[in-house]
Input
Amino acid sequence: MTKLTICEGGDGTESSLGDVLIFPDMIRYRELTHLDVDNFVEEVLVKDTEWLPGSPEAIKGSFVFVCCHGSRDKRCGVCGPALITRFKEEIEGQGLDGQVAVSACSHVGGHKYAGNVIIFSPDAKGEVTGHWYGYVAPDDVPVLLRQHIGQGEIVGHLWRGQLGLSEEQQKKALELRHATNGLTEEESSAKESPEANGTNGAACNPAPAGGCCQGNGGGLTCCQSDVPEAKQDKNIPAEQNHKSSTTESDKENGAASKKGRMKICRTPTWFETWDRSDTYTTLAVVASAATVFAAFRCYKAMN
Output
């Protein structure tokens, strides 16, 4: 099965607008226009033949795609940009420019698992495979860069599957990974837990009522690892504040052991989440209202 996804062009590599990247083949066709698309899909992706107007060139490195499609599901529109920012910060900070490319992409499915991340990178054997991660929070980014991209190892507590495999093949791949590591399923789950990877439950696994990005009275929240500091009441003694903080901390720790720690992110304003479809809908409503009003005026004038 071939899946087409649209992604932004400024990924930090030599790719430009109109380029087509094909994974896991790791090849690129340069600078297609909208007039080329139908013919390209038919010749290259359907018939698996050469596309005469251009020739493929090999690409190398690791490619990260983050779903930021806010109009399909606003959870991806909230979590995606935060992940893009963190990836770019970590890539620059770790000197991985030119080795790891990150791009926002269109809807890839599974929006309830936001943040959704797809990584194409060489595994421990040097073979390029695509892996899908869900419930990814910004604090999980260093782990993905270090363990998946740097070491070619799966980050188990975030892993949703390998692209191109059937459900049965996914199960066998998971069993093989456990067997290769010499671990039972319980031991593997413990090793790949958020605590073992130093993320303090940032991945929300198991997902608490919908995962990292959840609806909350019309708003949205995004899962993060740190817990907000307890507020101090200046009107009561410091000792009492300390006792209250300790009690609240105990409650939070108990809840965190079951759900993972979460931090509420700023809910985007209506302007930030506004897209073209909203504009068309608004114009349609206004036009309909104007038509009804004009018809009513004509009716009143005739009577």
